[in-house]
Design a protein that fits this description.
- Helix 6 crosses helix 7.
- With about 290 residues, this protein is mainly alpha-helical.
- The chain has one domain: 3'5'-cyclic nucleotide phosphodiesterase, catalytic domain (Catalytic domain of cyclic nucleotide phosphodiesterase 4b2b, Orthogonal Bundle).
């Protein structure tokens, strides 16, 4: 699998997502992907009424594009493996909307001038679900469709409790597992993941200050270097178990060839983790995760 798509470029990601969509649904809505990418570009660049451009240092537009690209590839690969239940075109669309909207909770309203959107780290999942309801309601989606997107969004977050999410169908639940998987794989496989960890620490500092004792996990790091030092353990002891147990190893569909080939995302993450174990913290680390 080619991971060379430039995720800083929404158009490049959109083309790859569109390729996956059209391959699965050649007679489907050919304008759905560019239309929804247009909506989200407006939201993240400050052109959605009532909201500012994203200003969180780690959970930026590229972070969303990384997860979105991985989600589209995962759904395509799952369908190619003839996994059941099958993903219909409408459910693919809702899954794509969910990953695109899953971090809109970091957006600030136009009258919010204190700090960055990172201050909402603790509440961003619920805020994202609320934003999704507003946007999709304006776009004419039904209450059941909006609920599906919200349920999938609630599969993200470090402490997501999947067993209490009121999924309306088995495929909706499965797409939620795919979304949670893509969110983790997309960011941790990024070629600059190691260099971006200090930005994540900056978000944690702001969130801990804003949320107080509600932010026990994010307040558990004493410095950017401490977060970097603990990230290999986070991968080994938390993320890998979550991918296999909570998300039922749907990441296996990215094995190429399926089922026993290498997984480009996992391989890239393992390479990043080896860097973290081998290297000193990046020189740009300030002294002063998702």
């Amino acid at each position: 699998m080619d991971l060379s798509v430039v995720t800083k470029d929404p158009a490049a990601v959109g083309r790859e997502v569109q390729r996956n969509y059209r391959d699965l649904f050649p007679n489907g809505d050919g304008e759905f992907v560019p239309r929804t990418f247009g909506w989200l570009t407006q939201c993240f660049t400050g052109h959605y009424p009532g909201y500012q451009a994203i200003d969180a240092p780690y959970h930026d537009f590229e972070h969303t594009l990384q997860g979105t690209l991985c989600m589209a590839r995962l759904l395509h690969a799952r369908q190619a493996a003839n996994a059941q239940p099958e993903t219909t075109e409408r459910m693919f669309q809702l899954g794509l909307l969910a990953i695109l909207l899953h971090d809109t909770g970091y957006l600030k309203t136009s009258d919010d001038h204190g700090g960055t959107g990172a201050k909402y780290t603790v509440t961003h999942v619920d805020r994202s679900a609320g934003f999704a309801a507003r946007l999709l309601g304006e776009k004419g989606f039904s209450p059941d469709q909006i609920q599906a997107v919200q349920n999938m969004i609630h599969c993200t977050g470090v402490n997501a409790k999947l067993n209490v999410i009121p999924f309306q169908s088995e495929i909706e639940r499965t797409l939620g597992l795919c979304l949670g998987t893509a969110d983790l794989l997309g960011q941790m496989a990024a070629p600059d993941y190691v260099e971006r960890l200090p930005h994540l620490y900056q978000e944690f500092v702001e969130a801990a200050r804003f949320s107080g004792d509600k932010a026990q996990f994010i307040a558990s790091f004493t410095s950017a270097e401490d977060l970097i030092r603990k990230t290999p353990g986070f991968w080994d002891k938390f993320v890998k178990a979550k991918l296999v147990n909570d998300f039922e190893a749907v990441s296996r569909f990215l094995n190429d060839p399926y089922p026993s080939g290498p997984n480009a995302y996992i391989d890239r993450i393992e390479a990043n983790i080896r860097r973290l174990r081998r290297d000193d913290p990046p020189a740009s680390c300030p002294a002063s995760r998702a």
